[in-house]
Design a protein that fits this description.
Layout: H1 11-54, H2 61-75, E1 83-91, E2 94-105, E3 115-124
Antiparallel strand pairs: 1-2, 2-3
Helix pairs in contact: 1-2
Length: 129
Amino acid sequence: MRLRPTTERGSAVVDFVLVLLVLVPLFLGILQVALVLHVRNTLTSAASEGARYAATVDRPPQAGVERTRAQITGAIAARFARDVSATQVVRDGVSMVRVDVVAVVPPLGVWGPGVEVSVSGHAIEEQLP
């Protein structure tokens, strides 16, 4: 006794392929968003650490750039630490150090451009008493 007619033979494979056509791009999209958020959070943390380091007494802003690059290289990869800059800024009469990082997160798949991430970290400069 047959439960299925022979005309439906192989339909499970077709159903499987149709479901995969929806699920794989969805899964890769979620993975891409997670990667971009991870890189952004890591860059933000490194920029803040570099700004705090450069804001200490007798340190130039360039020391913050070097510290930020070292943090990024140790946490994710050196290619994300290529465009790092630090400047002294004055906001509301307070002298601060700002470290800016710009990086491009590559796409997971073979389609689409990379995502540009731009973050900055700020710290109030220490003053000698």
